[in-house]
């Protein structure tokens, strides 16, 4: 086994499976009746999803389903099945090749619970927004039911819920470190990130008679091993990023204390793994295709928060698909093996994926039901994948990677024409041309050689890398061409804007402000204080000030009254109450009164979540004696920090008055221009208040 054999062939170069003779389905079937109408006696692959089936390229299961159909396979969909038994998972019969299980476009727990752990009243990915149509930890529940339905059928799990839980991860909802989802789901293999390359290889190889256990070479996959490959070099993760003395024993990891042996090799001819000691590693030239990093075991990271932060740091350093090494983490007697990330798609491959025959609307089974997520994106266009911002609180990078994968301009314009022609009730407005970030389209490293060796966590923090192409001209040209399409009246930009990057190209800002802002533009400075921003890997608030000046300048030039809507986060790891106070004063000074504000949500695998759990900063080498971050875990602390963001809401004034007094900042209470909240004017009235005579008598009696 060697990762050098990992598949990076063109997505559409495989010989099509024989079932292509059945042609293209109008909608992928969700029932036996639909299968009969298509002439199918069975499905080759069945996708099980926690979302409603919307045949649109913004819905992951539709992308994977249509892509597999284009490879020649018969693909069925089981959407939001009842999970109290295995019966609903037998609706389409037994798949010939495998089940593909996903939690949908959102993590099922983030979908159901707010940051304050309150149950949401609506599920945007369900008909009529009905809540409760998916189980918590959907991937685990669905996988177990698939196993009950057809025990021998392989199970492939993927999507963001599986992707972000591929190793031991802190789980905010149970407030503990959980095992890799592979263990709990009892699945055969996990696909992380954008999975077209991996799913194509798996489908064609299984169709050719291979078993999942013979497909352990595929990038972007994780699986369980009971034995490790021979003639590989194992590197202890603490030798990659040494976290200082851990305990008294020389090896801090919780796996067999006896020397590692390969059970497959007789003792007399044993070929042990090479384990390189730390002092010698700098002088070793190791084959990255035959080297893996051993992370601290599940038991260790569960019981030692500093080791959890260390493991998170190492995982993020191994995220560049061009230099990442495989990783292994012990779970009891089993090893979870994580291959390097998938090779990014080329532009022609991404174009071909988006050119698949999507109907761009929900399956007819939903009749006239409204699916909120579809209503939001039905006239939007995704122009790229990935994000190199590296914001620590965001999981996009962990899922899609830092390398931008962009579509061609022609592909994007074709999709706009399809929206115009196919979407019922189209009014001429394209609601968004964007992606994870609005303005990273075709922005990549100037040097392929540098990109293949880089291990930076962000291309724009602490400063914008000198090797990054910051020319927005392709985006600007795309906007101009989109506006020329007959029938298109307005092209809005709704995706979040990386304003520090936009400052490198004022022409782009002018184009955006003049033609693509419908009065308001969302922007996310997240905080005003450098200490907190450094934990977020976000630019200085000075960049926001510079952007606002240009935004206002070009708005005036266009003769428009337009406004920025800034987004901020409360209770982020490392954020003190003093920082939130200063942010509130900054908001008041700039006359911002945020209505929608966020409280930090510890999503699985993000670096900020590692901070939240461990109290350490994994942006630096993790030491036991390194700084301990202030972490807001108490619900009252979190509400207080959120109250600072909404200083203008009178419901928050009593709490803020009490806090300001405790902080010794009574100068901020009153009616002065610098005051944050007004004085409690009712206090004096209550003190001098006299009860009516009749009431006084009653009280005396």
Structure description:
The protein has 27 helices and 24 strands. The chain has 701 residues and is of the alpha/beta class. The protein has three domains: 18-338, Cobalamin-binding domain (Rossmann fold, 3-Layer(aba) Sandwich), CATH 3.40.50; 517-646, Transcription Regulator spoIIAA, CATH 3.30.750; 649-701, no CATH class. The strands form seven sheets. It has an eleven-stranded mixed sheet with strand order 3-1-4-5-8-9-14-13-12-10-11, sandwiched between helices. Helix 22 links the parallel strand 23 and strand 24. Helix 11 (305-317) runs antiparallel to helix 23. The longest helix is centred in the C-terminal third of the chain and has 17 residues, at 541-557. The N and C termini lie far apart (91 Å).
CATH class of the largest domain: Alpha Beta
- Major β-sheet, in short? 11 strands, mixed
Using the CA coordinates, give the radius of gyration: 27 Å
Question: Average pLDDT value?
Answer: 90
Distance between the termini: 91 Å
Low-pLDDT runs? 1-5, 244-273, 275-282, 684-701
What is the correct CATH architecture of the largest domain? 3-Layer(aba) Sandwich
Can you tell me the number of structural domains?
A: 3
**Which homologous superfamily in CATH is the superfamily of the largest domain?**
Cobalamin-binding domain
What percent of residues adopt helix (DSSP H or I)?
Answer: 25-40%
Helix count equals: 27
CATH topology of the largest domain: Rossmann fold
Number of strands: 24
Give the overall shape, derived from the CA principal axes: globular
Side by side, the strands of the main sheet go 3-1-4-5-8-9-14-13-12-10-11
Helix/strand-derived category reads alpha/beta
Report the β-strand fraction as a percent range.
5-15%
């Amino acid at each position: 086994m060697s990762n050098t054999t990992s598949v990076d062939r063109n997505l559409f170069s495989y010989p099509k499976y024989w079932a292509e003779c059945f042609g293209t389905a109008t909608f992928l079937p969700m029932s036996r009746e639909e299968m009969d109408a298509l002439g199918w006696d069975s499905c080759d692959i069945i996708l099980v999803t926690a979302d409603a089936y919307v045949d649109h390229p913004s819905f992951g299961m539709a992308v994977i389903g249509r892509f597999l159909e284009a490879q020649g396979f018969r693909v069925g969909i089981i959407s939001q099945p009842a999970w109290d038994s295995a019966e609903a998972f037998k609706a389409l019969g037994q798949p010939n090749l495998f089940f593909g299980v996903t939690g949908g476009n959102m993590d099922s727990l983030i979908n159901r619970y707010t940051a304050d752990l309150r149950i949401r009243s609506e599920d945007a990915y369900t008909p009529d927004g009905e809540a409760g149509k998916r189980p918590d930890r959907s991937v685990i529940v669905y996988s177990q039911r698939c196993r009950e339905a057809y025990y021998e059928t392989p199970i492939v799990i993927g999507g963001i819920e599986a992707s972000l839980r591929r190793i031991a991860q802190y789980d905010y909802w149970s407030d503990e470190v959980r095992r890799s989802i592979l263990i709990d789901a009892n699945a055969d293999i996990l696909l992380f990130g954008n999975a077209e390359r991996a799913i194509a290889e798996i489908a064609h190889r299984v169709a050719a008679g291979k078993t999942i256990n013979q497909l352990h070479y595929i990038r972007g996959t994780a699986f369980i091993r009971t034995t490790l490959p021979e003639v590989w070099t194992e590197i202890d993760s603490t030798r990659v990023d040494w976290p200082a003395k851990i305990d008294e024993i020389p090896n801090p990891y919780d796996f067999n204390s006896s020397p590692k042996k390969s059970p497959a090799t007789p003792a007399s001819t044993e070929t042990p793994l090479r384990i390189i000691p730390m002092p010698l590693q700098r002088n070793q030239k190791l084959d990255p295709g035959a080297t893996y990093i051993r992370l601290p075991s599940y038991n260790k990271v569960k019981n030692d928060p500093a080791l959890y932060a260390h493991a998170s740091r190492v995982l993020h350093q191994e995220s560049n698909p061009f230099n990442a090494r495989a990783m292994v983490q012990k779970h009891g007697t089993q090893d979870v093996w994580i291959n390097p990330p998938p090779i990014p798609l080329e532009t022609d491959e991404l174009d071909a994926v988006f050119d698949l025959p999507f109907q761009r609307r929900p399956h007819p089974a939903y009749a006239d039901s409204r699916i909120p997520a579809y209503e939001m994106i039905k006239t939007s266009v995704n122009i790229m994948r990935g994000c190199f911002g590296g914001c620590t609180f965001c999981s996009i990078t962990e899922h899609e990677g830092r390398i931008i994968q962009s579509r061609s301009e022609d592909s994007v314009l074709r999709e706009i024409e399809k929206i115009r022609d196919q979407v019922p009730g189209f009014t001429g407005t394209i609601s968004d041309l964007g992606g994870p970030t609005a303005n990273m389209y075709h922005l990549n490293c100037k040097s392929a050689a540098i990109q293949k060796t880089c291990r930076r966590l962000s291309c724009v923090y602490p400063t914008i890398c000198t090797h990054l192409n910051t020319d927005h001209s392709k985006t600007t040209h795309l906007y101009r061409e989109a506006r020329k399409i007959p029938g298109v009246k307005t092209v809005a930009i709704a995706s979040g804007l990386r304003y520090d990057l936009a400052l490198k190209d004022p022409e782009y800002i002018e184009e955006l402000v003049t033609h693509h802002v419908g009065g308001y533009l969302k922007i996310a400075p997240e905080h005003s204080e450098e200490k907190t921003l450094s934990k977020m890997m976000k630019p200085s608030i000075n960049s926001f000030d510079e952007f606002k000046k240009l935004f206002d300048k070009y708005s005036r030039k266009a003769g428009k009254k337009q406004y920025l809507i800034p987004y901020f986060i409360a209770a982020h790891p490392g954020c003190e109450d003093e920082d939130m106070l200063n942010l509130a004063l900054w908001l008041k000074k700039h006359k911002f009164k945020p209505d929608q504000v966020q409280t930090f949500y510890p999503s699985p695998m993000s670096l900020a979540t590692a901070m939240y759990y461990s109290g350490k900063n994994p942006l630096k080498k993790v030491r036991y004696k390194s700084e301990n971050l202030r972490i807001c875990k108490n619900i009252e602390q979190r509400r207080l920090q959120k109250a600072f963001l909404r200083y203008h809401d009178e419901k928050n004034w009593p709490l803020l008055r009490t806090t300001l007094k405790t902080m010794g900042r009574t100068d901020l209470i009153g009616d002065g221009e610098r005051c944050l909240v007004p004085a409690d004017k009712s206090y004096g009235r209550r003190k001098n208040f006299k009860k009516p005579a009749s009431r006084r008598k009653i009280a005396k009696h």
